[in-house]
Amino acid sequence: MNVLVDTSVWSLSLRRSRGDLSVVERSLVAELTELIAEGRACLMGIVRQEILSGIRNPAQFEILKALLRTFPDVLIDTVEYEAAALASNQCRKRGVNVTVVDTLICATAAARGWAIFTADADFEHHARILPIQLHVPRM
Q1: Fold for the domain defined by 3-134
Q2: What is the rounded CA–CA span in Å between residue 29 and residue 75?
Q3: 87 CB contacts (<8 Å, ≥6 apart)?
């Protein structure tokens, strides 16, 4: 099964020094490395934008951009945008605040039957309401 990787996990791997990571964070990075090696890690364009946003050093931006170019964007359809809006409404109705990006990730993963790999605890709240599966690291 493919795994839609959230910004939080990509950022740990690409924007943080290994020495600055906790044991748990290192295990998340190791799991991402395995998913990439297996060809199962998927990247959405909006996540690519989030990862690249805020990088002040132009050379670092170009390096990271080149690394991410090895991953094609998951193509999003109108149906998934509509499903994301519905997911947002469902979560808010149940008192769970969501972001546009998070609901688009949820809708895209649900439509494809993929799991979501994230370090963001908000997705645990989303999973109580939405038909999504969270990827659990194997390590």
Answers
A1: Rossmann fold (3.40.50)
A2: 25
A3: 98, 103, 106, 107, 110, 126, 129, 130
**Helices and strands in the chain, H and E counts:** 7, 5
Beta-carbon neighbour count of residue 90 at 10 Å?
15
CA distance 32 to 131: 23
Residue 93 pLDDT: 96
Statement: the pTM of the whole predicted model exceeds 0.90: yes
pLDDT value, residue 16: 76
Q: d(Cα 82, Cα 12) in Å, to the nearest integer? A: 30
**Contacts for 7-11: CB closer than 8 Å, 24+ residues apart:** 7/47, 7/50, 7/51, 7/101, 7/120, 8/118, 8/119, 8/120, 9/117, 9/118, 9/119, 10/43, 10/47, 10/51, 11/51
Pairing of strands 41-44, 73-74: parallel
